Amino acid sequence: MNIKEFSVLVELSSHTLRYYEKIGLLKNVQRNSSGHRVYSSQDLRWVGFIKRLKETAMPLDEILQYAKLRDRGEDSVVERQALLERHRENLKQHIAQQTLHLSALEDKITLYKSGKVS
Predict the structure, then answer these.
(1) pTM of the model
(2) 36: domain CATH number?
(3) Which of 10, 14, 100, 101 is nearest to 54 (CA)?
């Protein structure tokens, strides 16, 4: 599929896709005879994973580190796993913090609903 179709499908702008390609996050994108990008189902899965990592607040430099390890192939599996495990712990801490914030908001809303706030 071309960049416009792919952009719509992955919900990222064409600019973002080109940027990912420029910084080495999205590699080996095929080109047709006219030189236009042609994305594959493998690109779709990879961009989906990148988006998931971003949505879990993984910094772009860590995603790039993961991508470089991925490019190395099987010999980097242990390092990739360790990187994801570190991120998992960071994510768990973030979720715990957000749960505390949510609880504080719930308490304040309950106080307002009770009418005991001046």
Answers:
(1) 0.83
(2) 1.10.1660.10
(3) 10
Could you tell me if 118 and 85 lie in one domain? Answer: yes
- Do residues 80 and 49 both lie within one domain? no
CA distance 77 to 83: 10
Whether residues 37 and 86 share a domain: the answer is: no
For 86, the domain range is 57-118
Q: What is the pLDDT of residue 34?
A: 92
- pLDDT tens by residue, 70-79: 999 999 999 9
Residues 110, 108: Cα–Cα separation, whole Å: 5
> What would the DSSP string read from start to end of the chain?
--HHHHHHHHT--HHHHHHHHHTTSS---EE-TTS-EE--HHHHHHHHHHHHHHHTT--HHHHHHHHHHHHH-GGGHHHHHHHHHHHHHHHHHHHHHHHHHHHHHHHHHHHHHHT---
Q: Are 49 and 8 in contact (CB under 8 A)?
A: no
Q: How many domains does the chain have?
A: 2
